[in-house]
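Table S2 (continued). Query chain:
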Amino acid sequence: MMTAVRLYIEFFLTGLFAVGGGLATLPFLYEMSARTGWFSNQDILNLIAVSESTPGAIGINMATYAGFTTLGPAGGVLATLALITPSIIIIILISKVLEKFRDSAVVKGIFRGLRPASTAMIAAAGLGVARLALLRTDMLAGGNLLQVFNLPAIALAVILFVCMRKFKIHVIAYIGIAALAGILIGF
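Corresponding output:
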């Protein structure tokens, strides 16, 4: 029972402070992983892959996945509800007062301050994911610097990045290509 209460509190706080969307929840998940041991960094990578590959908001998908890996189906529901509860409360409160204070300099200042904060959280999460997906940190002690780099994963990431910028193909096609490459190359 204590784990369920703690799971709810952890995801409630994540939902309350992860301003900027689903990817902004990643720093909270990394910290939660380190503190609780409920899931590993590899689980977070899997969580991102599943969340990006399924319909729905990434933060919700990640909470459901993380809750499920912690406490099964009930944990998935609990973590999802915990993540959305702060948003529901805040939206209700804001809707009551936003009309009155929409042109307020304070409100505008708050939103100007939140944009760089959410950008920084998303950038930090992106760098963390890149480190986990593109580097083999377990090879650092081996002495051969080239072994640290997951060259097939780096090549795939670069190719997909270039293709996404050059060709206007739906993102699902790139997800499928990446999954197929992972199966064929096995990195």
